[in-house]
Amino acid sequence: MECGLLALPLLRSFSNHFGRGGPSCKNVLNLQCNLKASEDSPYGKWVVSICPAYCDKTKAMCFCGNGTKYPDRPVAESCGFELKGNLVDWAKADFQNIFANEDTKKGWCNIDVTDLIDGHMQVKEQCDCKYDCTAGRFCEIAIQCFCINQCSGNGICNGGSCQCRKGWYGIDCSVPSPLIAKTDWPEWLRREEALPVSEFVPSDANRTYTRSKSVQFQKRHPLIYIYDLPPEFNSHLLEGRHWRYECVNRLYDQENTTFWTSQLYGAEIALYESLLNSPHRTLNGEEADFFYVPVLGACLIARADETPHLNMKNFMGLRSYITLDLFRQAYFHISQSYPFWNRTAGRDHIWFFSWDEGACYAPKEIWNSMMLVHWGNTNAKYNYSTTCYLADSWNAIPITDRGDHVCFNPQKDLVMPAWKLPDPDLVTKRYWERTKAQRKILFYFNGNLGNAYEYGRPEENYSMGLRQKLAKVFGSSPTKDGLLGRQVTQDVIVTNRRSNHYSEELASSKFCGVLPGDGWSGRMEDSILHGCIPVIIQDGIQLPYENVLEYRDFTVRIEEEKIPQLVQILRAINETELDMMFTVIKSIWQRFFYRDSVLKEAQRQKKYFNKSSHWASAFSTLEKEEDALSTFLQVLHYKLYNDRWRLGSPKQQLKKAFLPEDCPV
């Protein structure tokens, strides 16, 4: 068996050895930290993994190494190089600040905590714990690393990869073998209801499925089969993070207490973990209604230019292109190793593209599938890449690889809400319940407004120029030239100034602007979670659930050319319509929030560490309404009966399935 590949298209029981390959993962790979050296650049040109100390070539990460007091202490990026003012000289290693070991001066790799406490020594500010799994000023405290579902309590987390205990399988060690007593099975698998249905479980002996006759369940449709992909598509990308905040929605402090991140692409992790824990999950692909392909694309695109071995040059220097190739390799794997893809040409398969421009760069081979995105660009107006970050542009990707598909097809795809920080104030202050009378601001938008403002984005086409147009008319903060908008109005706030009271200002506004950034932005979610009516200004681009919810009941769409009439349009909305919109938002706001992910983590903290943080207590008091996960499942329910694209034929009678009462149409 090749390392990272399965003997059969089933569940892995092998260890996910990052940086290893060959039969039984015995061969250590040579993942260099540095690019090719030259006379002017002895450590090669800058790359995130650049290293003047010891390079761990199984991870392409830089550490102090043997001969130092603390060989496992990270020497990440500028820590190891000389500074010239605020600039780093990547050609000159700062050996004095790294390796010094004298009585009067100790470098980062030899200094003790007591040396700092005594006050007679200092440590370089740029040296810190960028990698996961350690905390403290000197990375001296071992902490809980991030892993998918924290290995379900059935394994050891190694910075992104789970080492499962005997008898447990899967990326999160949540699938038991016949060795495990049924009483110890995870809750999602103990679905004891009315109808007896046999289930497949992996045999511990030969990694093949055996039918367990003792398992009796009533299956709740839709049944979702989650591919157990080789680790290079998920856990290795997590383990290879050079900055621990990349692509994850939570981390742990030195007390092993959860703290949530504001990672924009955290929905990819949140949904994946929730599906792995869902009673809608099935281990039997033969009975599945849908197939989820868990490629962590955001984890690759976030670090595509971090290390030499990712070979960006082979992909024209485009992060979008190398990520396309990752998804295509996953397609090759599942289509060749499993029987399910070819049955429907992938029409019942689901992929998540959480990056700025969503599935615009999806490979042509998988376009029949359902795409989950944050960017619902139908290409009706913008049929080209709109990002100003050139490495993410898909314009230059050859049509032979990308094909000529649109970015978003409302007939088959779905825009999912973006991840938002689980702020307990959201619950304790109940922003979504603020009355109309409490909302004194007519219209509110706070964000980057372009190059006319201090620290503004310099590109003219940032946000497709829409934020700039809005600011020219209604800007309430002065530009670099001291100018305000042409129609500046007292109860209209359009500002670039960061606010420490952002949530309070959103919750004090009747209408809130939803405009793009480099692709999608999270302003729709900000608006809904604070009970503010979204004003959508982006032609031809759909927002979360727009093809399944009745958007006219709780949003206002204004055509881009009508930006100068914005205030006039909003003031013309009568009180009855306003009351209806606020009422609808109160009833649906949790659909834009990943409550299931938050509560599952609260349960883990309580079970494993007997902790109950403020956020856990707050969100546990929420009324149980439909959240992002349950809304997604409801959409799949609807597709079981009504999705002609998925069926590949006119509507036909399907087998009877459980259907929620308020399934959106």
UniProtKB/TrEMBL annotation:
- Membrane topology classification: Single-pass type II membrane protein
Give a yes or no for keyword Secreted in this entry. no
Report the InterPro entries cross-referenced here.
Answer: Exostosin (IPR004263), Exostosin_GT47 (IPR040911)
Against Gene3D superfamilies, the record matches this protein to:
Laminin
What compartments host this protein? Answer: Golgi apparatus membrane
GO MF terms here are: glycosyltransferase activity
- Would you tell me the Gene Ontology cellular component terms? Golgi membrane
**Chief subcellular location:** Golgi
Q: Note one Pfam family from the annotation.
A: Exostosin_GT47
What are the UniProt keywords, alphabetically?
Golgi apparatus, Signal-anchor, Transmembrane
Q: Where is the Exostosin GT47 domain?
A: 222-573
List the coiled-coil residues.
none
The keyword Calcium appears for this protein: no
- Which family, according to the similarity comment? Belongs to the glycosyltransferase 47 family.
> What is this protein's record name?
Exostosin GT47 domain-containing protein
